[in-house]
Design goal:
- With 154 residues, this protein is mainly beta.
- 4% of the residues lie in helices and 56% in strands.
- It has one helix at 63-68; strands at residues 5-8, 11-14, 18-21, 23-28, 31-41, 48-52, 60-62, 73-84, 87-100, 104-105, 108-117, 125-126, 136-140, 148-152.
Length: 154
């Protein structure tokens, strides 16, 4: 596996623990995912594809998924409205453990806040606030003519 490093004073410290193929232009349940990542919730083995969206404020989960894994999602009783290409939606913030699934190296699992929206007609979205801003990640679109997403927890 290729690891990524950060410079600290006169040393280089490994920060990436896993990577996955850069999945682009995927279709998942009728949704086009420009860049996606494989993930799961809690300790559940079911794999989901999610839109990796650095421009999205919140990570979004359809309420049907939160209801399917009631032991993985815990309401924070905070209601938030957002506007997206799917219109204006209101949901409730939930705390959950999410796992990014590695093709190479180790998966990472971390606690995050997600916006659970009833009747969400879009894909699972991995957004910036309280998700991507909690981990290190990098994208190399040129490696092996396919690309890689690298991730790790500092």
């Amino acid at each position: 596996m290729t690891f990524l490093y950060k410079r600290s004073a006169d040393a280089y410290l490994q920060w990436s623990s896993g990577s996955t193929s850069l999945l682009t232009d995927m279709n998942d349940r009728g949704h086009k995912l420009i860049v996606s990542i494989k993930c799961s919730f809690g300790d559940r083995p079911e794999k989901h594809y999610a839109l990796f969206d650095t421009g999205a404020r919140w990570s979004v989960i359809p309420q049907s998924i939160a209801e399917s894994y009631p032991d993985c999602f815990f309401s924070l009783d905070t209601e938030i409205s957002q506007v997206s290409r799917h219109g204006k939606n209101t949901g409730v913030l939930h705390l959950c453990n999410i796992r990014f699934l590695a093709d190479d190296g180790e998966d990472i699992i971390f606690e995050s806040n997600v916006l659970v929206i009833p009747d969400w007609n879009g894909p699972i979205v991995i957004g910036f606030t309280a998700m991507l801003d909690k981990i290190r990640w990098a994208c190399d679109p040129t490696i092996d003519h396919q690309g890689r997403l690298y991730f790790g927890i500092d």
